[in-house]
Structures are given as structure tokens and as C-alpha cells.
């Protein structure tokens, strides 16, 4: 009968240790940073394949920089 209190105590200690590690570990992450992307278009080409509409299925828009 003395095993049950010992098992309960061990379970409480393990749970408390896991909780402390989980909470403390999240505060140790790296500082967030921002990446800024800039698009500079030099040349645009619109390929209008049949059917000739404003912009339909099969049309292509090509953008490039030289």
C-alpha cells in the first residue's frame, strides 16, 4: 500500500517538471524579423491566345527584367 502514494508523488513531480520546461522553453525563441520583398518590372508582355477576349483561358502574362 505504500507504493500508491509514491507513484502519485512521482507523477506529480514529472508533470510539474514537464509544465515548467514547456512554459519556460517558449520564451527562449529567436527574435522575429521582417523580410521585405520589392518587385521591379522592366518589361511586360501579354500573349492573347484564341479566343480573343480581354483575358481568357490560355492567355499568358510574362514579366521579366533585363
Euclidean distance between termini CA atoms: 82 Å
How many strand elements?
2
Number of helices: 1
Structural class call reads: alpha+beta
Q: Report the biggest beta sheet as strand number plus sense, adding barrel if it closes.
A: 2 strands, antiparallel
* pLDDT averaged over residues: 79
Strand content: 15-25%
Task: Indicate the radius of gyration in whole angstroms.
Answer: 31 Å
> How many domain regions?
1
Arrangement of strands in the largest sheet: 1-2
Q: What fraction, in percent, of the residue positions are helical? A: 25-40%
H/E element sequence:
HEE
Low-confidence parts: none
Note the overall shape: elongated
Summary, kept brief:
This protein is α+β, with helices and mostly antiparallel strands and 66 residues long. The protein contains 1 helix and 2 strands; from the N terminus they run αββ.
Task: Pick out its properties.
alpha+beta, elongated, 1 helix, about 70 residues, two-stranded antiparallel sheet
Architecture overview:
With 66 residues, the chain is α+β, with helices and mostly antiparallel strands. It has one domain (3-64). Helices cover 36% and strands 15% of the residues. The chain is built from one helix and two strands; from the N terminus they run H-E-E. The protein has a two-stranded antiparallel sheet with strand order 1-2. The longest helix is centred in the N-terminal third of the chain and has 24 residues, at 3-26. 0% of the residues are buried. The mean pLDDT is 79.
Can you lay out the helices and strands and say which pair or pack?
Layout: H1 3-26, E1 43-47, E2 60-64
Amino acid at each position: 500500500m505504500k507504493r500508491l502514494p509514491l507513484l502519485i508523488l512521482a507523477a506529480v513531480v514529472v508533470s510539474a517538471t514537464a509544465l515548467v520546461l514547456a512554459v519556460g522553453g517558449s520564451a527562449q525563441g529567436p527574435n522575429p524579423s521582417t523580410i521585405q520583398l520589392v518587385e521591379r518590372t522592366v518589361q511586360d508582355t501579354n500573349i492573347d491566345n484564341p479566343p480573343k477576349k480581354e483575358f481568357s483561358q490560355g492567355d499568358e502574362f510574362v514579366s521579366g527584367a533585363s
